[in-house]
Amino acid sequence: MKLIALETSAEACSAALWIENEIVERFAVVPREHSERILPMIGEVLAEAGVGRRALDGVVFGCGPGSFTGVRFATGVAQGVAFAVDIPVVRVWTLEILAQGVRREHGASRVLASFDARMDEVYWAACTADDDGLMGLVGEQLVCRPGEVPVPDGGDWTGAGGGWRTYADQLDQRLAGKVTGRIPGALCHARDAAVLGAPRFAAGRTVSAADALPVYLRNTVAWKKA
């Protein structure tokens, strides 16, 4: 199984190739340079592995939530690759991708993943690891004010992502006693999208290129609150 994964939902830009349980990745923190970097990254990981685009079985991408521009861009590239070589797509929530990276790098199994959604709100999801170490949502992901995030059951949660940097005080007050660690600088990696996407692809949880749509959580992404 050969999958190309890409992630551009925030300031980081990355592409990864999953090939028979091995991963080749390119990753860079390049705000506002995603459009210049992602296609060369895809080319580099394919070249390093000696894989042509027509040998790919599927595309995995972070479908949101996140930066409106970044999520829309990832969607367009994923659709373009899938259309070009007629392969299916796996959509993976970016908050799950973030949580998977925190598990990979820090061993956390209970993660409260959050991005700054602007307009005094956060994108939010609680994620836990299954028996295979794959992070998945507990309940629904949502957009809300930091002081209104759902309080999770139990304790020993790790807070991760930019929401914890921007709204640290409000989140700490709301979740007093629940959180034992914070990683506000955590970023999404395409390699973690690939890890989550591979078993979903194998299980047939794919969509066509035309149905590979983004998830914004907020319907009115372009307006500002008075």
Secondary structure layout:
Blueprint: E1 2-7, E2 12-19, E3 22-29, H1 34-49, E4 58-62, H2 68-85, E5 89-92, H3 94-106, E6 110-118, E7 121-129, E8 135-144, E9 157-160, H4 163-166, H5 168-174, E10 179-183, H6 190-202
Parallel strand pairs: 1-4, 4-5, 6-9, 9-10
Antiparallel strand pairs: 1-2, 2-3, 6-7, 7-8
Helix pairs in contact: 3-6
Which terms summarize this structure?
226 residues, alpha/beta, five-stranded mixed beta sheet, globular, disordered C terminus
Largest beta-sheet characterization: 5 strands, mixed
Uncertain segments: 220-226
Strand content: 25-35%
Structural class: alpha/beta
How confident overall, as mean pLDDT? Answer: 95
Number of strands: 10
User: What shape does the CA trace take?
Assistant: globular
Radius of gyration, in Å, reads 17 Å
> How large is the count of helical segments?
6
SSE string = EEEHEHEHEEEEHHEH
Side by side, the strands of the main sheet go: 3-2-1-4-5
What is the CA-CA span between the terminal residues?
A: 50 Å
Proportion of residues in helical segments: 25-40%
